[in-house]
Amino acid sequence: MSGSDTPFVPRTAPTATPRPVPAWAKKRPPKSKAAVRTSRATVGATRFVAPRDPNQHAHKIAEGVIGAWFTSFGGSSIEIPIGTVGALALLRQPKAVGPELANWVLSLQSGELPQLIKEIYLGHWITRPDLINRAIPIHDWAWNPSPDPQQLRAVHAVTNQAVNAGLLELTGHSDPYRRAQSDVLSPLLTGLRHKSDKKWRGEYHTPASVTDLMARVLVDEDFAQPDKAIGEPAVGSGGMLRSIAQRLRELQRNPHDYSWYGNDVDPLAAACAAVNTIIWDLGPRALIGCADSLANGDGGYTKTLSQAQDAYKQRDNVVEAASTIAASRRAFRLLCELVPDKEEASA
Length: 347
Description:
By secondary structure, this protein is mainly alpha-helical. The chain has one domain. The protein has helices at residues 54-71, 79-89, 100-107, 113-125, 129-134, 136-139, 149-164, 167-171, 176-179, 185-192, 195-201, 208-218, 239-250, 267-279, 301-338, 342-346; strands at residues 229-232, 259-263, 286-289. It has a three-stranded parallel β-sheet with strand order 1-2-3, with helices on both faces. The longest helix has 38 residues, at 301-338.
């Protein structure tokens, strides 16, 4: 089993607090009009009817999160809601836990959410330090020792909105094919950015319907040969890679048998692509870089590979140091058990 297949579950056991049945889980009423959304997400809030199409569902979640962030006066730090949704999308719902995981997340207070987000990213850093390091721009804020209370309230609203809208049901599947049916981070990133900012950056992500069509046209039995290298010089949040991976799975191929490389000049887009690489389980040979593909002869691949190798070395050094400390503590406890207390010895 690869590291990305191992479900991450927070250390605290989920509580049994019941969650109201979300509207998207109920039978759709006849002649239903536009989906109903609340302007501010709270536990037990009215939920919209999620579309059956995963891509529409992802867009609805993004719209709700954007509304929750700005109506809660979260500010211009758009990396915070992106990192929050990214962390939640990295959660898996084991059958033994089921919907209780969502109930537990909804029960958390605003001040408890940064710790949850740190644990999620750290849990995946053990297996993919290169990708989690690439995602630093969207989760670095969680390590702030003195967070802004207003931003924490906005994070709380974003969390409740995303969970109530069915994010975990969309991305929490153990089957990577099911959780790779859509990209939540792409509409979230582009929706949070100001129009002028997107124009200046030239950041317009290709719609999922287009990338899916391109993948079906380009990827056939002859193309899908193991050990093939698949690259995207302007990866965005990774939409084209997602579509190709899904097409390979439809052809009974495993994305782990291929080499993947995505690069983007925008640090936030590259961070989203790194998180999506884990969500979609592209495999151990997937690299995400942040560089100008036109300014580098190899599209920044050499630099990205070097950074990934450094990340693994850093991870190994930390794990080795932690193992040494743990072994020393075990030895100290054993020594205390073997050597009697001075007072007991003199009695």
